[in-house]
């Protein structure tokens, strides 16, 4: 398995050592393989301070490492018992954050096949999608990567190994809420399941591997659909040519690519329904941590609560300026856009957001219209207005993204001009 993970000679492995039987056995096996595997070995223990035995666990881990000549790291983390996520989840988050600071190429965990089967069942019963049903992978590339070399072994095999070799380990007596449900599953449900289906554990573990494979394929499909729909800003019309399932899969994939949790299925179902029901309309569809925005044939995701209003930048003739998550390209042209001569004569040209009292005259002889009126007429929804780029020339609005150029700045036929293009 270590070879299959692509562990190169000289790479640093670190066992996440709780002091329980699983990670203690893992430590012993890896210590024996050290010479042949060509990797360096260390272990790290996280002291959560939740149990009165926490100090003893840390010392037991240190002693196991000393006996094997394995470098030992320990971390003390603060876990609030009243954490809104619950002490178990808070401890897990703090533990994983601490472990990811260990200077190593791979962290090795002691999860085994019974853990895998329980994880899958637990997640299915709590409600999960294909991603969650994939449970735990043997190899998770990353920095550091994660390995679970014991995933193919049953708990009983691990305990038998530990007994045969006279290893000592500590027992975790914690019984907080989530543990309680997990323990119920482990001690009451699994034995009944195994009585009826003797191969329940390996079968469930295999199902996890199949879900993981399916999840990988869904990711591949989303990547293809994303590219076909235009990449960064999706083309709504192309997106709607896909089946509902593929649109949902693509949105889910995009949300995860932002490092966020995918929303509940019902939310995605509703969002896709609304996208189809009003294919022309500007929409803001809540999807948990993000909002799916559509406007004029484009579709994109924004953080919930909207994006920060982009900052103003002075223009010194650059070909483009950053604007929020996108940019404004200022392309040279003839007889089009803003008059180059007028811009060159200006004391200051700034790309920034709208300001109070902003108004613009679209044509010679036409009245100056307020920003609000211009937006209303152009059908620009209120939620999009703070994010519109405005080119301000000596205090006057010369161009507003999605609206256009002011009459007094417009380039005459045959004259050199500058055409601003907002690329999101
Ligand atoms: N306090 C700890 N310090 C270091 N490693 C730990 C600690 N607790 C658990 N681990 C590592 O995590 C593995 C799984 O532990 P356990 O089953 O208790 O955690 P879990 O909460 O079910 O899993 P996970 O943290 O992956 O969600 C252990 O075999 C061990 O490798």
From TrEMBL:
Family that this chain belongs to: Belongs to the tRNA(Ile)-lysidine synthase family.
Protein name: tRNA(Ile)-lysidine synthase
UniProt-annotated binding residues for ATP: 18-23
Documented EC number(s): 6.3.4.19
Assigned keywords, A-Z: ATP-binding, Cytoplasm, Ligase, Nucleotide-binding, tRNA processing
Main location: cytoplasm
PANTHER family associated with the record: TRNA(ILE)-LYSIDINE SYNTHASE-RELATED
Organism the protein comes from: Aromatoleum toluolicum
